[in-house]
Amino acid sequence: GHEDFRPRIVPYYRDPNKPYKKVLRTRYIQTELGFHERLFVAVLTSKATLNTLAVAVNKTVAHHFPRLLYFTGLRSAKVPHGMVLVAHGDERPIWLMYETMHYIHQHFGSDYDWFYIMQDDTYAQAEQVKALVTHLSINQDVYLGRAEEFIGGDEQARYCHGGFGYLISRSLLLKLHPHLDSCRNEILSVRPDEWLGRCIIDFLGITCVSQLQGQHYHTYELAKNTEPEKEEEEDFQAAFAVHPVSDMTLMYRLHKHFSRIQLDRAYQEIQDLQMQIRNLTSLTPAGETGLTWPVGINAPFLPKSRFEVISWDYFTEQYLFSCPDGSPKCELSGASKADVSEIIESALEQLNSRYQPLLRFSKRQLLNGYRRFDPTRGMEYTLDLLLEAVTQKGHRHVLAKRVSLVRPLSKVEIIPMPYVTEATRVQLVLPLTVQDLDFVANFLDMFAMNTLDTHDNALLTLLFIYHPYDAQRVSQVDVFAGVKAMVGELEKRYAEVKIPWISVKTEVPSQVKLMDIVSKKHPVDTLFFLASVWTEINMEFLNRCRMNTISNWQVFFPVHFQEFNPALVYRGEQTASSSTDFLRDGHFDRHSFAEACFYNSDYMTARTKLAADILERDEVLESMEVFDVFLHYSGLHLFRAVEPGLVQKYALRSCNPRLSEELYHRCVLSNLEGLASRSHLAMALFEQEQANST
Fold this sequence. Notes:
Blueprint: H1 29-33, E1 37-44, H2 53-60, E2 68-72, E3 85-87, H3 93-108, E4 112-119, E5 123-124, H4 126-134, E6 143-145, E7 147-149, E8 158-160, E9 166-169, H5 170-176, H6 180-186, H7 192-204, E10 211-212, E11 215-216, E12 219-221, H8 234-237, E13 241-243, H9 248-281, E14 313-315, E15 319-320, E16 330-331, H10 334-355, E17 359-374, E18 378-391, E19 396-408, E20 426-432, H11 437-452, E21 458-466, H12 468-472, H13 481-493, E22 501-505, H14 511-520, E23 527-530, H15 539-548, E24 554-563, H16 566-569, E25 586-588, E26 596-599, H17 600-614, H18 626-633, E27 637-648, H19 661-673, H20 678-693
Parallel strand pairs: 1-2, 1-4, 2-3, 12-13, 20-21, 20-23, 21-22, 24-27
Antiparallel strand pairs: 4-9, 5-13, 6-9, 7-8, 10-11, 14-17, 15-16, 17-18, 18-19, 23-26, 24-25
Helix pairs in contact: 2-9, 3-7, 11-13, 17-18
């Protein structure tokens, strides 16, 4: 039973007489390999303390444990927010313990290695408990806690006191489960923890221990009217669990005290590591010159060319001079203002801690502020502060001081995201106006080559936008007759494909109004890709559209790559045909929001909120895009990222002056920035001046 696990290679063999059957793999590799989660925590509570002590446990330590559930006999009419509660329907303590152990085995016995059971009047140091289970072997039957003697029982046998929490291994839980019914019928006890301990001893012969494999389970019993802030005993400082906690306030005070202890330990550990780094730096090839500031933080990023230089953003206490919308100056507000205030406060705190009691500094004014985000280390700040220094004798002096600060990148967290697949059908929606007719043929050719020929799970719907004048003459001259003929040819070539179209008459083709029409004609679970006529559809992008769009969670607005005007870039020379240079002569058009991937259900939900906000004022829709609808009227994540798989050839877009001023301005900017790069424009002007001078 004490032998180490040894891997064994199982040779693959398939019976040639049996038909081949595709093997279904698990979604996650840890499931296939049989890995378990580390720790499950059960908190025993009651109807009387559910809204008091249980809430205090939930607010203090619950978020530090990977999985925590609350178990009670009877529940209140309203369960506190953010708590997962299991009610067994009976307040008898022994029954509650029996049902809890049975529930844990049934629902979590095969998923976790360790089970920690505590009461709601217990304060547990979550980080200490999590560190404890990482040092214990999972192949032993463990019953670890504060060992207590049975009243009038065997002197050698011990049970784990429930008030201080106890740890049970998965192997012990699996062995104990078949005997729970017998324990319920045969063992009489008033205390649930004593009942469980007697059950484990009688049927498994395992007693509670406070020390195992070199690890000690430290506990501390609180006296009445205890002041946590004044407790200096070593047992209290090292305790994994503290009991009894009489009220919510005491729970919060304990959490504050132990959090301060952990913070001081972390700061001391950082100082020790920095000292070790300083001592070892002299032994490195670079010597002491290789020591970076702050010690232990990655060195600043060193650009290899001027294009990799990370620019600094200038700010004062009132204004920011590098604004998200591109304007040269904007008011400092929100998170940015809080960030600047915190940095100035931290700078003063560090200065005073270094120079007190000889000098005490107070801020007069922030003269200059600079900040930049270095992806290798974090946010860097440089502050020019006008300070007033006061000596011990009361003399005052005003001086300017430059300080540098770093807010380092902390532990990286993986954000949980719903599971999506690449098998979802994508419904392409292509709005067309008369100005787009010259580009439709190329769009349809690319769609046929990259989706129809490859049998990709994608469909296309065309949206013909008629001007009122053209709509009146449609029986004589249909401006979209050529497009309809192309669609007919495609449907003949691909017999299983149908490309429907919708005709709309309007002078102002509002993206939201057009989407309203399309949305009503498709099921709610449809995944839309709102395309433009210059888009070249390919399988790579469609897969990213599927993966980046999550129903009731996230919508995707890709930033396409816009090629520059070849007449300005190449000026009659041969265009670059290398596949590695396809993103060279162009730019990502951040002014365009025409392409979007989203689910119909998400759009309908956001559109309903928009309708309730604007009431009958439909003219507001002319100044909005689908992006604005999701931004202001949905709680979804808006994922906006550059998309190298979405490349558009150069074309001069026609900007409708009937649209809102902002949309028209964005369209004009997109056209101007899409002409060429600064170097190409400068060369064109230079050649033009040379030609004029001769």
